[in-house]
Amino acid sequence: MSLHVGTSGWQYKDWRGVLYPEGVPQRLWLERYAECFATVESNNAFYRLPPTETFQKWRDRTPDPFVMAVKASRYLTHIKRLTDPAEPVARLMRSVSGLAGKLGPILLQLPPNLQADAARLHACLRCFPPGTRVAVEPRHESWWTDEVRAVLTTHDATLCWADRRGRPWNPLWRTAGWAYLRFHEGAASPWPSYGETSLRSWLRRVEDQWPKTADVYAYFNNDQRGAAVHDASRFRDIADAGGWPVR
């Protein structure tokens, strides 16, 4: 059980000189990333689902016990809008099986204009194989109902705690025995960084809901200017000083 801290993706050219030394070719960026962080959230599958072989290569290029969370395909979340989920979920799980034991949670980020449909969410979540960790990030306020919360709890799917400019933009529900956080944009300078106070506040929120024995996944998506790299490192250091088992 650990606090897993990383970033949303690793292939950002403006991280050159921040995380990637000059002279390190882009084809070796994942190896360099894995020297600094023990987890990453892969966004590749959202735009175009890679084949199983690609996930296998990522597995082989990272050390044990690296963990890769995967953002589900937009075909499932944005085009199908969670309808008829069986085939796209099965295809997703076939591809990510290439990660084997390095597979972390699956993230379902829903479109901002997708209004709540608890039955549709239930039908989608039941398609995932038993034991699959699924985090759900709704982005329409209609989702904040007791019925939706009950669906998430039934499937041990966690409500993604999302931050925008240092503030939660969803209810801080605990719906599973594990947690998933996404940091989209900080309010500190230089933009889009997070300040010390904000990072400490988020750690306190986690501590209010989960014991240090729980698995908590935290990913920084404020990739511009390398802010995510700095903020993930700082958040990890703050948590480590607070007694969290950090990876």
Question: How would you describe this structure to a colleague?
Answer:
The protein has 247 residues and is α/β, with parallel strands linked by helices. It has one domain: Alpha-Beta Barrel (TIM Barrel), CATH 3.20.20.410. The protein has helices spanning 29-36, 44-47, 52-61, 74-79, 86-96, 118-125, 146-154, 196-209, 227-241, and strands spanning 3-8, 39-42, 67-71, 103-109, 134-137, 158-159, 161-164, 167-168, 179-183, 216-220. It has a 10-stranded mixed β-sheet with strand order 6-5-4-3-2-1-10-9-7-8. α6 packs parallel to α7 and α8 packs across α9 (227-241). The N and C termini lie close together (10 Å). The model has no long low-confidence stretch (mean pLDDT 97).
Explain the layout of strands and helices.
Layout: E1 3-8, H1 29-36, E2 39-42, H2 44-47, H3 52-61, E3 67-71, H4 74-79, H5 86-96, E4 103-109, H6 118-125, E5 134-137, H7 146-154, E6 158-159, E7 161-164, E8 167-168, E9 179-183, H8 196-209, E10 216-220, H9 227-241
Parallel strand pairs: 1-2, 1-10, 2-3, 3-4, 4-5, 5-6, 7-9, 9-10
Antiparallel strand pairs: 7-8
Helix pairs in contact: 6-7, 8-9
Keywords:
ten-stranded mixed β-sheet; globular; alpha/beta; 247 residues; 9 helices; 34% helix; TIM Barrel
Low-confidence stretches are none
Whole-number tally of structural domains? 1
In total, how many beta strands? 10
Give the overall silhouette: globular
Summarize the structure.
With 247 residues, the protein is α/β, with parallel strands linked by helices. The protein contains 9 helices and 10 strands. The chain has a 10-stranded mixed sheet.
